[in-house]
Amino acid sequence: MSLGPVMLDIAGCAVADDERKRLEHPQVGGVILFTRNYQSPEQLKALIEEIHSIRSPRLVIAVDQEGGRVQRFREQFQPLPAMARLGELYDNDQGLALQNAENFAWIMASELLHYGIDLSFSPVLDIGDSASSVIGDRAFHQDPESVTRLANAWIRGMRKAGMEAVGKHFPGHGSVEGDSHHVTPFDRRNFDDIEVHDLVPFRRVIVTYLTGIMMAHVIYQAVDEYAAGYSIYWIKKVLRSQLRFEGLIFSDDLSMSGAESVGGYTERAQMALQAGCDMLLVCNNPEGVDQVLYSLKGYNNPASQLRMVRMHGKPSAQSDNIFNTEQWQQSVARLAFFNQHKYPSESGDLFE
User: Fold this and answer.
1) Going by C-beta distance under 8 Å and a sequence separation of 6 or more, which residues neighbour residue 196?
2) C-alpha–C-alpha distance, residues 177 and 117, integer Å
3) Quick count: other Cβ atoms within 10 Å of Cβ 150?
4) How much is the pTM?
5) Which residues, in sequence order, are CB contacts of 182 under 8 Å at separation 6+?
6) Are 250 and 210 contacting, i.e. CB atoms less than 8 angstroms apart?
7) Exposed, middle or buried: residue 143 (CB in 10 Å: 0-12, 13-18, 19+)?
8) Contact, 88 vs 140, CB < 8 A?
9) In CATH, 6-338 is 3.10.129.10
10) Residue 36: its pLDDT value, please?
11) Segment 245-278, tens digit of pLDDT
């Protein structure tokens, strides 16, 4: 059975009978985990093994483990800083900031891969702007070039661990005031203004290496009447044709208020797929998931299926014993020092 285009969630720390039936549906391709799905490392490993046993090829398992206020697993996981803290360090010591970004991403990815999780939806490629409270300190920096360099370092760390990166939220959510979790945000700038600012990190990182991109539930009304995740213009013309992105395109969660602009769940799924999304996130609404799955009966996209398989994690041979390695111990010490000091560049020779 191939992987379908829907990534959904589950309610608790184990898979319920009705959820198992849903995960067996041919149009499901992945599972996204939340804080409610985690009690302990042992429970998490058992849950992931249970999910993996349901399908072959196995479902892609993802989580938002960005760091800062967006880190779903905390107890007995390494505390990752908000990305803006790396940006603050970058303004004082670029080299050390880039080393830390790569190092902390390696920690994040290695830890998740150890438990069988394929993806963290990161890095955030949005521009830091005080106008956007939902992005805020999730962004590396307010300067597009600085975001690009830090994001590339973060991706290097993820890939060294064996995890592909998913940049978000295309074409940029950082300059928008509204929170798409609760409203449909509007961006009134023209394309040229967006291109020279918000699009810069996406363009540069795509050229370097990026396997996945998540769309923004934002309507850029001077460019297109539809939110970016439903927009043929943004996905097919800009992202695929102009930026030549060949990886997997995720919708953001179709249950968010920012996704409601085109109608119910069936309309949202159809619009996103027609615009060019490969995988649809549908979270926190089982009835909505069922509506989407029913509407996709017979749907088949071989190109999307190939892109999805690439998202499976590829942990190193030492993954099972990663916490006992010298590299892990040194990396965790570096992270702990960073979390305890405002300016790690004042640390003398600790990291030399």
Assistant:
1) none
2) 32
3) 28
4) 0.93
5) 256, 257, 258
6) no
7) middle
8) no
9) no
10) 98
11) 999 999 999 988 777 888 999 999 999 999 999 9
CB of 264 within 8 A of CB of 291? yes
> Which residues carry out catalysis?
181, 252
Give me 61's structure tokens: 């398992």
Please check whether residue 80 is in contact with residue 67, taking contact to mean a CB–CB distance below 8 angstroms: yes
* Amino acid at residue number 331: S
CB of 136 closer than 8 Å to CB of 144: no
Q: Take residue 151 and report the two structure tokens written for it.
A: 């994001």
**Contact between 283 and 9 (Cβ < 8 Å):** yes
| Cα 67–chain centre separation | 12
Instruction: Note the helical H segments in 276-341.
Output: 286-295, 302-309, 326-340
Strands (E), the chain: 6-8, 28-33, 60-63, 65-67, 70-71, 119-120, 166-170, 186-187, 212-215, 219-220, 248-250, 280-282
